[in-house]
Amino acid sequence: MTNSTYHAGMDDILAQPLSRLAEAVRNRAISAVELTEIAVSRHKEHGGHLNAYKSLDLEGAIRSARGADELLARGVVPGPFHGISISAKDLYGVKGFPTFAGTARQLPDVWSSDAWLVAQLRAQGAITIGKTHTVEFAFGAVGINPHWGTPRNPWDEKVQRIPGGSSCGAGVSLWEGSAFLALGSDTGGSIRIPAAMTGTVGHKLTGGRWPVDGVVPLSSTMDSVGGLTRSVEDAAYFFGAVDPAWRDPEAFLKHIATTKPSSLRIALPSCLIWDDCPSDISAQIHAALDELEVVGVQRTNVDGSLLDEAFDHYMRSGIVGTECKAFLEQELPEWLDIVHPTIGHRLGAADLLSDPGYALAVKEHYRLMSVADRLFQEGSLLVLPATIITPPPIAELGDMNTYLQTNITALRPTCCVNMLGLCAVTIPVGLDDEGMPVGLQLVGASGADEALLAAALTIERALGTARERLGTPACA
Fold this sequence. Notes:
Layout: H1 4-8, H2 18-26, H3 32-46, E1 53-56, H4 58-73, E2 85-89, H5 116-123, E3 127-132, H6 170-176, E4 182-185, H7 192-198, E5 201-204, E6 225-229, H8 232-242, H9 249-256, E7 265-270, H10 272-276, H11 279-294, E8 298-303, H12 305-317, H13 319-331, H14 341-348, H15 356-370, E9 381-385, H16 400-411, H17 415-419, E10 423-431, E11 437-444, H18 449-463, H19 466-470
Parallel strand pairs: 2-3, 2-4, 7-8, 7-9
Antiparallel strand pairs: 1-3, 4-6, 5-6, 5-10, 9-11, 10-11
């Protein structure tokens, strides 16, 4: 086999960073077919137990991998994702796959053309193995999908717990090993929440940095696209490969790799998020911060009351519900009658776009964004929990009031970032008292994605990757 030398130097291919996998394919130390067969076999090994996917095309993935190998044999210069399997949230248009957006019925074919982000990765050689489950129309942070079943959080083999939402299948696909990058979207935390709850890395880009074209919208005001990855290094590689300012992942990794711990300044905001954080979760984050302080990271405090103000406005304003309802009325009116009550309950209470309250709410959103810089002093980054809840068993969320309260709690540390127009990344740092992942959320100013990823990579190299720090989930 062509990959015998390559495998001899690797304990586990699933633990290798994207940069090394890409290099191995590029140098033909491992073929795209062999790498894809590993992804396919990992999915088959789990036999659908984790239920990460809504749609799969395993045979198509192998065919695409053969094509990738043929291109290399002809001397075609490979892109950064050549022959690498990815998953896409079932909001993304992907040519050759249906789009359901978590609903009971397939959406019109217009939503099955490549979304902007999918097209970028396809041009770089990525192979979409399947489309992962999402909360219906992405309108929920818990991760439940009553129509198609909820993906299993891989960290508990005895009790089926929520994986976080709305990109609920994304992090699960990473631990399953069927994907090396999982595309998601983030409106109030829908990348970071499932990343935190599944022990993966989630980067919420500055709003508007990447186009959302071809992705079924939730909120035209606050939607953003991005991905969940197995490590911060992978997140940086992905960003460097796709971002129009870079288009060169190796150059970007080299650019941010020189950041030293002593140059980092992180601030703990005084806010109700920390007050509401359970002790076993906050203990894991503070233990990580203590480790970082030992290697030279500077720590300070800042008034975080603006975060509480932003959370209150996110919850009261109804911007997301209003915009989701308007999209459905205009583009998919028949779907309003078939949405599940967990979604329909909130859509029914949403205002109309013509309501004066909606215009005022959007105006307040932009005012909050305009004063967000006061959270960042002397180049500091904020540290928050990524979640303040242990993922509960799915069986406990059948009651609507319990579901709604859990949804609000899940959004608590993340939606304020969207409301303020900031960027953020969640990094796995430990396990709580029930053995579930704890994520540290690092928050940067608007437009500071490069500095944020540089700091996050420095932190990961000081603390260790998710696999090194947390181990492997029981179900993975």
